[in-house]
Amino acid sequence: MSVSASGYLRIGATDVAAWMDFGTDVLGLMDARREDPAGARFLRMDDHPFRLMVEPAEADGLIAAGLEFPSEDAWQRTCEAVAESGQSVTPGSAEEAKRRGVTAFATTADPAGNTLELYWGRELDYTPLVSPQGVPGFVTTYQQTGDLGFGHIVLPAPDIDATASFYTNVIGMGLTDTLYPPGMDGIKIQFYHANNPRQHSLALFNGPHPLGVVHIMVEVETMDEVGRTMDRAEAAGSHFLATLGRHVNDNMCSVYLLAPGGIAVEYGYDGMLIDWETHVPTVSTEGDLWGHDYSFPDVNE
């Protein structure tokens, strides 16, 4: 297995300041205060230079997902496999690599058109993490297994079979489980793990999405931090896309909030960690043990 983790996201925002306020004041992420000539802002969760890059854009949505590889060799072999699969691979410049805090990266797209940045050699920032909301830490590492990534991301993939084959046979991820949500005929979501214990680092939804991302997830260390975030979100007037609930597949106890511009952010605790040597992929027909009642905003809001 090649991919170490889902390392970072590049998010396009029509109102960067509003996104940063949401990231710091509600989610409790740290403003990395990195200089950027293009006007991007950066949010930290741990010792990585950033996990979320929020960039000025004419439309809100996901720009790219950064997937981390453990070595130059693994990265190079994967880039070659992507090219052999028929997807274009564009090496990033040294200047753009420095902007991302990586040794090298290359840009490609999966068969659904989702943009990926494949990289290796992240340059860490040893400045202590100080959450403006007092969050003591985010779950991005586990004991001696190393990086778990920023959390997870769910991407749209109308042709889910071709896209799934790309992630498993070319990128090097493994299938964790498949969900057929109750009451949603024809909908399928497949979950994939990287080479770390997190139950899934990426998932595919078999339909389109106007923002290019179904949701992103960040995880905290205690249930109390989820509750405090809910209080901050309510005080800030954030839209609750889903009430508090616990998922069947990864055991995550979480709430869903809408960031400025509409990207859904799952904020959770107690996600399952798995030993891949013994795991057998599962099939679920229930999404939640309890909770997660959804409230989708009106399109005119």
Automatic annotation (TrEMBL):
The keyword Acetylation does not apply. Keywords: Aromatic hydrocarbons catabolism, Dioxygenase, Iron, Metal-binding, Oxidoreductase. Its cofactor is Fe(2+). Residues 5-121, 149-270 form the VOC domain. PROSITE patterns: EXTRADIOL_DIOXYGENAS, VOC. The keyword Translocase does not apply. SUPFAM superfamilies: Glyoxalase/Bleomycin resistance protein/Dihydroxybiphenyl dioxygenase. Belongs to the extradiol ring-cleavage dioxygenase family. This is VOC domain-containing protein. It comes from Pseudohalioglobus lutimaris.
